């Protein structure tokens, strides 16, 4: 697949995943936790930068930035999975939630960025927990973006 086509595919997948998150939040009534919201920021960052890469002349810099965002999302999803595996670690008031809910984006778009769920209570969707799905997608995006970078380096 050509790098630009792959970047467009990544962007569309990221925006689709945000759509799934909004569906789960507003239709299925799953409350997003702080790590979920961080993962939403990461999906949006990967998607927007990949889309910019699709429209620009060089794919190298946007792919590198999108890769950094995907690795950040991978870290956040991994952290979320750790909290699920060790519920005592995440019990109590989460300072990350307070920080996230004070960001301007949480005030401008609370339907997308407001956190009010508990990280240790991850629901399942199609047989896997939502953080597992996020981890999988961020891993796929990281591999694809790394491949774009390696191919553009050789060219």
UniProtKB/TrEMBL annotation:
Main location: membrane
Periplasmic-facing ranges: 24-41
TM stretches of this protein: 40-57, 64-85, 133-150
Cytoplasmic face residues: 1-6, 152-155
Keyword Chaperone: yes
GO BP terms: protein folding
InterPro entries xrefs: DiS_bond_form_DsbB/BdbC, Disulphide_bond_form_DsbB, DsbB, DsbB-like_sf
One GO cellular component term noted in the UniProt record for this chain: plasma membrane
Membrane topology recorded in Swiss-Prot or TrEMBL: Multi-pass membrane protein
Disulfide bonds: 33-36
Record carries keyword Transmembrane helix: yes
UniProt subcellular location: Cell inner membrane; Cell membrane
Any Pfam family the entry gives: DsbB
Family designation: Belongs to the DsbB family.
Record-given protein name: Disulfide bond formation protein B
Organism: Pseudoduganella rivuli
